[in-house]
Amino acid sequence: MDERKVQILMDSLLPLLKAAVAFTVPLTLTSFALGLVLAVITALVRLSHWRIGRLVARFYVWIIRGTPLLLQLFIIFFGLPSIGIILDPFIASVIGFSLSVGAYGSEIVRAAIQSISAGQWEAAYSIGMTRSQALRRIILPQAARVSVPPLANAFISLVKDTSLAASITYVEMFRTAQEIVAITFEPLLLYSEAGVLYLMLSTLLSGLQNFLERRLSRYTTR
């Protein structure tokens, strides 16, 4: 590698890291937090006796899981202005990613709740708990431990998916790499560097996931 390319790598590293810390990480955390709340609500509605609510929740999950995330972002950012709804790139990205996390996460949470044995419900009812009390005090805490591995995988995937926000002008790490490429004309070099940073971040999160799973296994292994 010649001296010019080495210098480009060195000069671009700090802007990419700044974009990751200032834009990619906040977008990921905000979207995942909101999406997780939406996932729990959607899962509980789908498991409820509220027929209309179940239909609405199933329709939402069907739409989000059945269409590309990039298309959803385009509809939110480029499509909604045609009906007078203009959103900031960050807000549009958060809405798109949160809806995606909510739909996929709801299936994880729903499966985790259904994995809890019927005996747990019966035990709760036998001591006078209502359905909501049983959910809050007994079922959801156990389901949360079951949900950790797949939800952690969803979080790691979301970190990488945030690169799609570059397509709606949100200046996260990948968008920053694109801007540097437009100046340096070194796409292979810059995109590879961005890929390495995404890989390092995903590897770090995978390590944290493994640590968390080991901690939680102490409460599930008997």
UniProtKB/TrEMBL annotation:
Database matches in PROSITE patterns: ABC_TM1
CC annotations in GO: ATP-binding cassette (ABC) transporter complex
Matching Gene3D superfamilies: MetI-like
Main localisation: membrane
Assigned keywords, A-Z: Amino-acid transport, Cell membrane, Membrane, Transmembrane, Transmembrane helix, Transport
Sequence intervals crossing the membrane: 20-47, 59-80
Compartments where found: Cell membrane
GO molecular function terms attached to this record: L-cystine transmembrane transporter activity
InterPro entries membership: AA_ABC_transptr_permease_3TM, ArtM/GltK/GlnP/TcyL/YhdX-like, MetI-like, MetI-like_sf
Protein name: Amino acid ABC transporter permease
Record family assignment: Belongs to the binding-protein-dependent transport system permease family.
Keyword tRNA processing tagged: no
Domain ABC transmembrane type-1: 21-209
Membrane topology, from the record: Multi-pass membrane protein
Keyword match DNA-binding: no
